[in-house]
C-alpha cells in the first residue's frame, strides 16, 4: 500500500478524522488527505509548526523506549480538537480528529490497518 492510499484508508475509518498525513522524521509532511472542515482549524504557519513539533516530540520520546517500551501514540487534546500522532516505521502518522473521538480506540483501529497491510510504502 502506498502512502496516499494509506492516508486515505485512515481518513475513511471515521468521519471525525479531519486530517491524515505521513510525516518524515525531519518533520516534512510527505503526503496527506483531509476533509474540507479542517481548514477552519489548521492552516498556514500553524500547520507547519504543529507538524514539525510533533515529529520532534516523537523523536525525543524514543529515548524512553528502554525504560517504558515502544511508543504507541501521542495525543494532544485541545478544546476544539485532538491531534494524534502514531509512529509507523521510520515515519509518523499525524491525525487531526474531532474532540469526541476516543484516541485509544482509534489508535487500535490504525494499528489493525498497519498490521493487516503486507507492504506499506510510506515513501511514495
Overview of the structural elements:
The protein is of the alpha+beta class and 124 residues long. The chain has one domain: Dynein light chain 2a, cytoplasmic (Beta-Lactamase). It has four helices and five strands; from the N terminus they run αββααβββα. It has helices at 3-11, 44-61, 65-68, 103-116; strands spanning 17-23, 29-34, 74-77, 81-88, 91-98. The chain has a five-stranded antiparallel sheet with strand order 2-1-5-4-3, sandwiched between helices. The N and C termini lie close together (9 Å). The relative contact order is 0.22. The model has no long low-confidence stretch (mean pLDDT 89).
What's the short story on this structure?
This is Roadblock/LC7 domain protein. Helix content is 36%, strand content 27%.
CATH superfamily label = Dynein light chain 2a, cytoplasmic
Question: Which class best fits the helix and strand makeup?
Answer: alpha+beta
Q: Give the mean pLDDT.
A: 89
Identify the CATH class.
Alpha Beta
* CA-atom Rg in angstroms: 14 Å
**Tally of strands:** 5
β-strand percent reads 25-35%
Counting structural domains, the number is 1
Would you identify the regions where 5 or more consecutive residues have pLDDT less than 50? none
SSE succession: HEEHHEEEH
Tell me the number of helical segments per DSSP (H or I, 4 or more residues long): 4
Distance from first to last alpha carbon: 9 Å
Largest sheet: 5 strands, antiparallel
Protein name: Roadblock/LC7 domain protein
Organism: Candidatus Nitrosocosmicus oleophilus
Amino acid at each position: 500500500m502506498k502512502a496516499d492510499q494509506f492516508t486515505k484508508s485512515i481518513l475513511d475509518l471515521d468521519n471525525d478524522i479531519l486530517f491524515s498525513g505521513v510525516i518524515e522524521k525531519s518533520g516534512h509532511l510527505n503526503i496527506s488527505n483531509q476533509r474540507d472542515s479542517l481548514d477552519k482549524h489548521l492552516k498556514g504557519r500553524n500547520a507547519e509548526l504543529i507538524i514539525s513539533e510533533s515529529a520532534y516530540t516523537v523523536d525525543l520520546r524514543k529515548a524512553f523506549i528502554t525504560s517504558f517500551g515502544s511508543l504507541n501514540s501521542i495525543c494532544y487534546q485541545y478544546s476544539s480538537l485532538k491531534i494524534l500522532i502514531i509512529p509507523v516505521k521510520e515515519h509518523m502518522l499525524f491525525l487531526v480528529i474531532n474532540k469526541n473521538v476516543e484516541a485509544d480506540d482509534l489508535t487500535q483501529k490504525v494499528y489493525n490497518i498497519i498490521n493487516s497491510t503486507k507492504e506499506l510504502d510510506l515513501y511514495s
